[in-house]
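yo, XdhC family protein is done. seq:
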Amino acid sequence: MTNTSATAFLSQVPERAFSTDSAVDILQFAAECLDGGSGVALATLIEIRGGSARALGAHMAIREDGRYCGFVSGGCIEAAVASEAVDAIAEGADRNVLFGEGSPFFDIVLPCGGGITIAIHVLRHSAPIRTVLDKLQGRIPAGLRYEPSTRALTAIETPKRAGWESASFVTVYRPKSRIFLSGRSIEVDTTARIAEAAGYDVYRHDNANLEPDASRIDADTAVALLHHDIDLEIPVLQAALGAEPFYLGALGSARTHARRMERLRDIGYSESDIARIKSPIGIFNRARDAQSLALSVLADLAAMRVARFG
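structure:
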């Protein structure tokens, strides 16, 4: 790994183009700028020493004029990374930069007390990024491989996790989290509003039509049944149990869930199938108002997604 001087002359002053930590937004910005004729670099968090505010594989995209988006830390070094990227674009050469613990930049200290390494790759073409974006648009997981020795970036099949594979660094991209909400209640209305504000893709199943759209349920979908009527739940539970959502939860007391399980047994579902249903739903049991229930459900499924996919 190589280091560069933090005091290098900068022809451009970095400025955040917009605030996002969405990989789709960051890659889209990079591809559009590159295809528009601008020089662009993709900065990636490739090493963590101690603590870090972001996970391995976190990105920034930086245009040659210093405009950037994304995060590789909690916001404390992004301008410095952008400055390094502007220099890298001007030189046409990739570089690695260390911050925090182990870094020569004594005046840049990470609040977490650890250290990180950022790989800055000067993009040559947008095809690998476009491939990832196309897959994510179709709700298909994707991956990128960066080979420092050849300065090559290639689209690959989805790796299990972000990190080093031999001499290459691989990054994982998953489709946007979707929440499949079933029910016609104030709890559903409130959960949908908060979920949308948090950036989830929200799909609401209208129980006037008892046939749920099972195609809306995939591995990046959480299914939350916020009903007060078991009869309305059953078609949705059948659709969810026939798919592989990363979360499946249903509203109700222990007595309600016992009745739910009995109905499913009568239909022919196994105990292992039924055990996939989280009930009571959420991270705490006694949510007596719509706002508390919505926060309980969303926190529960967010924790489950992190545990499943990192």
